Amino acid sequence: MSTHEHTAGAPRLNVSRWAYRLLMFAAAVQLGRALLGVNVSAVAVCGVAAAVAALAVSASALRRSGPAAWSPGTVAAAALLGVHIWSLTVDAPGASGTWGTVGSAAAVGYLAISAYAAAVRRSARWAPVFTAGILVGGLLAPLPALAWGTGGTGGTGGTGTTCANSGCTTPFAVPLPIPQTLTPTSTDATTDNYTLNEQQANLSVIPGKTTPMWTYNGTWPGPVIKSTAGRQVKVHVVNNLGISTTTHLHGAHVAPSSDGVPTDLVAPGQARDYVYPNTGESARTQWYHDHSNDQTGKNVYMGLAGMYLIGDSQEQALNLPSGAYDVPLVIQDRSFNADGTLKYAPTDSDYRTGWMGDTLFVNGAPQPYYQVSARKYRFRVLNGSNARYYSFSLSNGANLTQVGTEAGLLSKPYPQTSIKLAPGERADVVADFSAVPAGSSVTLRNDQGWNGATDIMRFDVGSKVTDTSTVPATLRPFTPLAASAVTTRRTFTIDQDRSSGMWTFNGQMYDPNRTDATVPLGATEEWTFDNRSGQDHPIHSHDINFQAVSGTSTTGPNAEWKETINVPSWSSVTYRVSFPDYKGTYVFHCHILEHEDHMLMGQFKVV
């Protein structure tokens, strides 16, 4: 008996011929978008795997008669189709490759394969309908309105051409800009004084468009402030924007009055002096950014971020690459509307996954190239993105030798072929191009790239030059905090309130009037962050450095001093920390900025 013959009395499938053709065409359109679209990403891979699984479950449904309408395969198809519709209507505007997109891809794959199987089985003349759907889908692939959920896809850039990202940028078409070093307005025996003007600037960051951005001193990223350990820096920040702001020096050991906590706002037209003593801090890579309550994500996305470097004599004695061979790399992602304006419109889904742009920038340039000599370079790598994780590697498989974290130099170099950074983390790395043939190129890649966000920048290697720099076997002594010194242990459980969608520590949303931990001055404690949320969370504590002592993120460089560390989903991380000076109130929070803005923040008070 053929697959479409029915036994006596068996009910036929209640699907009309035209409805079936429409379903087949729609499935083929979506499959065509995946196969022929320029925007194919890891989501498509997930979709293929899920589709194969769905096809295996429903194999019997393709062979049975009427009762197959209630087979597991048909039920699975209906469920996947429901997820598909949900992801297109709810999740797609800002999803970033989670259940909505995987479910969508699985549904597309299942429907396309089953429709094709039915087309071949019923009549050969149906096959052109399926084929036409694939071709139409391929042509429609770049349109954001039909895109699978991949956070912040933005517009097409308005050029009318097929673009791999909303800015219509071409990889490796522009040179890497080096952020300018800010010059002090004045100096005296103890202090260097600087001025930062928060102002709107119309910048050319994508081809043929002008993008209004919120900047420090008119540049994105802001200028680099270079300081010296033990020498005080005073930064006069003038707010010339139409919003209230606060400036946080991420990683600084400072008094609460200069910490830039979320509620310590500076109104438009006003100014504030932030004092950074740089005491108790060795050489390290820090960054400054806006930290306004509930608005950090948008304000940083609009451009309010820049690097702050501390140097010392110990670092200089190591003879690491320096001067023109010590290069800051501020890595961020952005999406754009068709008129060139930044697209930042988080949905409820984005407040779970975080907002991710579809165009990668380094120092404000889209996927730039950088001309290097065949020698060693030191790169200060900052993950300045709102929510995107990066796993950095070189296309030739060479090592990136990590010599520092955001808390300063490590005890020894760590050669690695891949370095993972969560939002807010930094890695101080040395890359050696001396063995790369002149005239060839090496690409810095992101092995966790979604939506084509894989190639970050390209190094174009020139001839050899004299290189007297070194990477010593010993960098900076590391003395762990003793377990015997711990007086208090605290646990902060990370979860999401199901009714409001807000994030919580220990079931509580951020409240600036509540203190979540009161710590005696001079105490040593252990804090455990127990992540029950199903999402990763990079935890950052203001004012303090800590030593991670247990958890899946505590190996290699992460086992030494840190001030931001990733807590994987359904896992926990425990760190040991001391509070040697500075009484007052500080915050700790997730550094996925949409999580922070959606209340995943707490307060501790040193007394």
Report on this structure:
It is a single chain. With 607 residues, the chain is α+β, with helices and mostly antiparallel strands. The strands form six sheets. The chain has a seven-stranded mixed beta sheet with strand order 12-11-10-14-19-16-17, with no helix packed on it. The chain has a six-stranded mixed beta sheet with strand order 23-22-25-30-27-28, with no helix packed on it. Strands 1, 2, 3, 5 and 7 form a five-stranded mixed beta sheet that branches. Helix 1 packs across helix 5 and helix 2 packs antiparallel against helix 3. The radius of gyration is 27 Å and the shape is globular. The chain starts with 16 loop residues before the first helix and ends with a strand.
List the helices and strands and how they pair.
Elements: H1 17-36, H2 42-57, H3 72-91, H4 99-122, H5 127-140, E1 186-187, E2 191-203, E3 211-216, E4 222-228, E5 232-239, E6 247-250, E7 271-276, E8 284-290, H6 296-301, E9 305-311, H7 313-318, E10 326-334, H8 350-353, E11 359-362, E12 365-366, E13 369-374, E14 376-383, E15 390-394, E16 400-405, E17 408-416, E18 419-421, E19 426-432, E20 441-446, E21 455-464, E22 486-496, E23 503-505, E24 517-519, E25 524-531, E26 537-541, E27 546-551, E28 561-562, E29 564-567, E30 572-578, E31 584-590, H9 593-597, E32 601-606
Parallel strand pairs: 2-5, 4-9, 10-14, 13-21, 22-25, 24-32
Antiparallel strand pairs: 1-2, 2-3, 5-7, 6-8, 8-9, 10-11, 11-12, 14-19, 15-18, 15-20, 16-17, 16-19, 20-21, 22-23, 25-30, 26-29, 26-31, 27-28, 27-30, 31-32
Helix pairs in contact: 1-4, 1-5, 2-3, 2-4, 3-4
